[in-house]
Write a structure and sequence with these properties.
alpha+beta, SH3 type barrels, five-stranded antiparallel beta sheet, two-stranded antiparallel sheet, 4 helices, rod-shaped
């Protein structure tokens, strides 16, 4: 019984000694440290390899105003430049016919413009803008003709004036039969009216025709 006990102890002791020996001439395999980390080398980009989306830089978009700006001309007189695209918005300025502006944006029936000269921005109704520069209409100054309005005269007065002017135009004193000469005598048959072939003054109302009355007016 004791022999078996000691034999068993010897086998156990021998096994322990065998386990403690280093195999392959004492060279052991070092187990890697669980905390040790190996840094990864950065990926090398081949010359022909296109850049990945992450490596591409986002291009800077040009200013929206610079892309959409276009020259226009005002085609109305005293067009309102408003603070907002609303007919009730505050008026910032008034633009005259032919004014050159730069259109920056559109909103419905309105356009946001910039005055080239004053560098002021605002909104105007798009219907007042044109691609072509309008030619200002030059109106000739209105010539007011002065029309002399003669007062309306009765035919009887016109007849009297015609007779008086006719007699006054005769160079002598005996124009009509009822005229008197320098001695105060009636001319009668000696008057120019009574003698044919000479002056023919108008002495009586019957000598005045309607056409003469109309021409006198």
């Amino acid at each position: 019984m004791r022999k078996r006990y000691w034999l068993l102890c010897g086998v156990i002791l021998l096994g322990i000694m065998k386990l403690g020996e280093t195999p392959e001439g004492g060279r052991g395999v070092a187990s890697p440290s669980p905390t040790a980390t190996v840094p990864s080398a950065p990926a090398k980009l081949e010359p022909d390899q296109p850049p990945t989306p992450e490596m591409r830089s986002t291009p800077v978009a040009p200013a929206q105003d610079a892309e959409r700006s276009e020259p226009k001309f005002v085609r109305g007189n005293s067009v309102a430049l408003r603070q907002a695209p609303n007919a009730k918005a505050k008026i910032l300025d008034r633009l005259n016919l032919g004014k050159r502006v730069m259109v920056l944006a559109h909103e419905g029936e309105w356009s946001r413009v910039k005055d080239d000269l004053a560098q002021r921005e605002g909104w105007v109704a798009s219907r007042f803008l044109s691609d072509d520069e309008p030619v200002a209409k030059r109106e000739a100054p209105e010539v007011k003709q002065t029309v002399e309005v003669k007062p309306k005269i009765s035919p009887s007065i016109i007849i009297q004036r015609i007779i008086a002017e006719s007699i006054a135009g005769y160079p002598g004193t005996c124009a009509c039969p009822y005229s008197t000469d320098r001695r105060g005598r009636k001319c009668g048959s000696r008057s120019a009216y009574s003698k044919p072939g000479g002056y023919s003054p108008i002495c009586f109302a019957g000598d005045v025709s309607r056409s003469m009355i109309e021409a006198y007016n």
